[in-house]
Amino acid sequence: MKKEIWILIMILLFPFSIQALEYPSVNSKVVEIYDLTNQEIVYEKDSSNVVSIASLTKIATTITAIETISNLEEEVTITRDILNSVRWDLAKAGLKAGDKVTYRDLLYASMVPSGADATHAIAISSSGSIDAYVSKMNELCLRIGLTNTHFVNVTGLDAEGHYSTADDVRKLLEYSLKNELFREIYTTRDYTLSNGLEVHSTILRYNTSSSNINHILGSKTGYTGDAGYCLSTLSDINSHEFIVIVLNAEVINGLYYHVIDTVTLVDFLLEHFSTQVLVPKDTLVQKIPVRFSKIDEYKLYSSKDVMKYLPDDYDKEIIKISYEGLDYLSFLTKEGDSIGKVSYLYDNELLFQEEYVLEEKIEMSFQKIFKAYYALIIGIPLFLFLIITLFIIKKKKNKK
Q1: Cα torsion for 172, 173, 175, 178, to the nearest 10°?
Q2: Whole-angstrom Cα distance, residue 178 to residue 264?
Q3: What distance in Å separates the CA atoms of residue 382 and residue 376, rounded to the nearest whole number?
Q4: How do residues 296-336 score in pLDDT, each as one tens digit?
Q5: Which stretches of 79-216 are DSSP H helices?
Q6: CA gap 221, 56 in Å, rounded
Q7: How far apart are the C-alpha atoms of 69 and 133, rounded to whole Å?
């Protein structure tokens, strides 16, 4: 038999109600926070709005190169034409005409310092033109289901037809982080190219508020007039990985709010998200009636803490225990016999399931058997006695 029990005991264990979490106010107009480990959005603000994303575009540029260039150790010569194709006001890694570097070097130089010179070198050297390379980027977007993203350049310059959403950027980053090399590049803050050129992560340059960015594992910044200041990050939040996307932030009094907002949100997650104990070890989870025995019921207890990574305001009302097994036990149930199984669920997600067997001998109770069947125990002999008595009386009458 299957029974589902809503865990009222949790109210007793947590007598004080927790108010719904209120996320901190931020300057960024667009936000998405994604629990990468659990693969779920935990907070968003206008994350489906189509906007400019500036140099977050280079996430697509980089993963496209990793997937399409067969030999990343191939040497590339930086030409004057490549450098002249880069607009003067774009961020650059510092490559010079005549430099010889590998495609691998260019990937780091494109992502870490957000070098448009490296990005153009990747596109032109591997595909012959910017347009040809952009076509590959758009093909990638379609393949992984980015329905609100389209590129017309490789750097993120504001242009008609060049757009995305915070949600699509998150999906793109989530996809890209599955690639070992991309993850390595994305989480690098300092790198030396094979020609000796040293490059440094732009998040270091933008962190003018000296915010604590130690929990941020990797990042990609961006800025254009339309996009404002943008930042994508991967952070470690109490042993869970989170992606935080902030778009269209401002710089105020020399403080860059895409970094400040991200650190504010990361600190908030650190304070309010953790592995929660939903059902403590040794919680009574089921009582099974016992018939004709010295005990009235057999109790099942949870064998371990049942846990899930959740915010502090998780919904305790959707914690559920489901029992499926015997409706009752008796002295006929033997030690070691299977009793049933208990499932622990949160919002219908199975967290843990355990099987139970009888761990002790159940002794028979003659008193309970007599109490249950005393009418039969007394009635049957009495009935037989009456039948026999009547039979004897009748037999004596017949003899007369």
Answers
A1: 160
A2: 26
A3: 9
A4: 899 999 999 999 999 999 999 999 999 999 999 988 899 99
A5: 80-84, 103-111, 116-127, 130-143, 166-177, 180-186, 202-206
A6: 6
A7: 11
